[in-house]
Amino acid sequence: MLSYQHSYHAGNPADLHKHMVLAELLTLLTRKQRGISYLETHAGRGLYDLTSPESLKTNEAAEGINAITLPTCPLASVLETIHAKHGPDAYPGSPLIARTLLRDQDRLHLMELHPIEYRGLRQHLMGDGVSLHKRDGYEGVFAVSPPTPRKGLVLIDPSYEIKSEYLDVADFTHRLVAKWPEATLMIWYPVLPAGRHLDLINGLKLPTIRHEVSFNLKNGEGMTGSGLILVNAPYGTKDILKKVETQTKPILTR
Predict the structure, then answer these.
(1) Using CB atoms within 10 A of its CB, is residue 200 exposed (0-12), middle (13-18) or buried (19+)?
(2) pTM of the prediction?
(3) CB of 146 within 8 A of CB of 133?
(4) CATH (residue range 6-248)
(5) Which residues carry out catalysis?
(6) Tens of pLDDT along 68-91?
(7) Could you report the per-residue pLDDT of 212-230, keeping only the tens digit for each?
């Protein structure tokens, strides 16, 4: 369960999908002055080098973020900030995207159990308003919920290395919503030929918005698409999803 390292996949088409929507959603949630809390179950290291041996071994960014010129949008603004600080080959993970977009009144609670990933997370995300936790992501997020500020977004983004994790995510979602009914949840899942993501979709007994895209990664070997499920999505989310579809063609298709 601790073998997964996202550096092999950073910037791939699934990241493009997830991060475009995440950046837009955070921008929507922070339109008002009131602070929000941002939580992640599986934060990763926060910052990736797309010229690292791991990234170049798979070269998945060439079919994702490096295959597109982003129009003016929140993710493009984040990348401009990150490139100015870390260089043109740097790519932010979701924690750093959130930290870049959030404000002084907002708070981040980031869970990461993998020792190498956690070390990177401490290197890149330490600072005021950020709580880092080296603990199981589900247990950690559940323990700190509901946080202050109570308005918030939770990203649930495991590796799904274990087949049962799809049902585990569904179960966790129900438990978290019962404890923190106001939370907006964004669940990412891979679309694979085996169709195991259907266990997650069918296991959720809540009103949701689901958004799936397809792509041709590695000539169809492995992932064939990326999915997002939103629980308690704020007003305007459907417009965000349509905007992302338009901006990411032809890499991501419906």
Answers:
(1) buried
(2) 0.96
(3) no
(4) 3.40.50.150
(5) 157
(6) 999 999 999 999 999 999 999 999
(7) 999 998 887 789 999 999 9
